[in-house]
Here is the input.
Amino acid sequence: MRSGHFLVRNRHQHTWHARVIIPLSVRHHFDGKRELRVSLKTPDKARAKRLSRLFWVHCQTGFDRLKTRPVSEQSFETTDTFLHWAGITTETNKNSAMYKVDMIDMLGRRHVIDLDDPEEEAKLAREFQANAIAVLNQFKDRPEMLDRLMKLGGTEFTKSESQPESTATFHEAIDLYIEKLETQGRKGRKLAPRTLLTYTDKLRFWQKHFGQRAVHTLTLKELAAIQSWLVYLPANFAKKALSVDHAVKKAQHKGGLLPPISDKTREEYLGQLKGLLAYVHSNGFINTNLAVHVEMPNTKLSPGISRLPFTGEDMKSIFPGKDYGHDFGSRISKDDYNNRFWFPLLAAFSGARLEELGQLQLEDIKTCPDTGIIYAMIDNQGATADGTKKRTKNLNSVRPIPIHSTLLHIGFMDYVTARQKDKKDTGLFKLKRDKQGRFAKGISNWFSRYETRKNGQVVKGYIERQDINSKGTNGAGDKWSKSFHSFRHTVIDNLRGKQLQNGEFIRELDIALVVGHERDKRETASYGIDRSQLSLRKAIIEAIHYEDVEFEEIRWKS
Here is the structure.
């Protein structure tokens, strides 16, 4: 069935099409045409799969008939001509035996039931109530039809015959599912604390929405309605003092004047609903896997917020030479000062991620005995200062980052030596995790936040105080932002077009090597320090240079 059988859909449309390859042996009947294609007239992928298989079978029957015909006897200019000749209707989803049931009940009455017509289903379902035995006998050898018939709503027949193995309310099921995510993770992998909190937040939304309702009472019609109104769910409704019920009602009335959630956020809500439905099906709380009917939005082309790199003027404002550190904030401790001093500098000369820097231990600052190169080891092995396991975004993130000579000149190793005197905290920086498990969220807030509090007070981060806008909109109306992560983009842009000391140009793969990008799944950094091309990494890192930024005037003082 896999050979020559496809489902296709234009990215601008929602309807699925079946596509069948014409065998070479009969292709001469089609004037050289390579394939047959027909609209399945449904946006439901699961249903489209079933219809496309049926279409494929019909086509094969027609092809077999053609093989017995002389070359000149039969010719088809269009797909419809062949379908008509083979007795295949393009209304596959309405006339196939897969979706229509022709039966005789106990009273000798003939019924043709269209399983894709909700009104017809509801009408005939009432007649089945008095003839359940006849239905069971008629389709005892066709469990897929029994399953569909038993789900026709509004009858005692449905209620008595379609009970799941065990029943549970949405409230109970979601508690169980969250416990499973906490202990077993997802797809066999433990979840990061922040990811688990995101999942739990979305699942609690569905828990409040469905409440104590039995899981098996959810219908396909209602599931389709949920996917329709979720598009209009108000963004950040909790911060607007809206309850879940109130927010849902607004969404069902298309939101009013409140801006809706983004496609990315909608994907998160639907993703957790889909995961929940798959879980309750696998645990026998529902008989049908409703998860296959949850259609996820394609967010790849959705408009998002572009994170911009810092310009040359931005870098001069962030690192104002000898004045660097004078505007880090009032009433800060020595530890806060050190963290704010080194985080931007390290990011500007490495492109490292915020949490990669935040979880560094003092023992992660190493010196290669062969080359004398000083480097920071970003790793997913061992523990952080608070005893939790280190994490990296991907395998390529495991890498040594040579310390740029500019940082050594500023006094980085003096800082490391000073930190080693602290026998209670083994972290390179004195940091504590937030509720989402992040070490450096406080650094991110300090660096780029801009918010207006309820009392009208405007709180500005470091770059805002340096007259660098942290967010805005371009001429086309697209949103952009600048944040600590912009250093990563800045380093990548800074290295493009640069040359190594031997005259070779730095390649994209070289940049990926030092910043830990997962390019084409090349897990180059997972082989250990002896095979990680430390000298090449050092040469690439040393190529980072910012014109007219007075780093030579910056000094760290203990």
Observations:
- The radius of gyration is 31 Å.
- Residues 5-95 form one domain.
- The chain is about 40% helix and 10% strand.
- Confidence is low (pLDDT under 50) at residues 90-99, 153-161, 521-532.
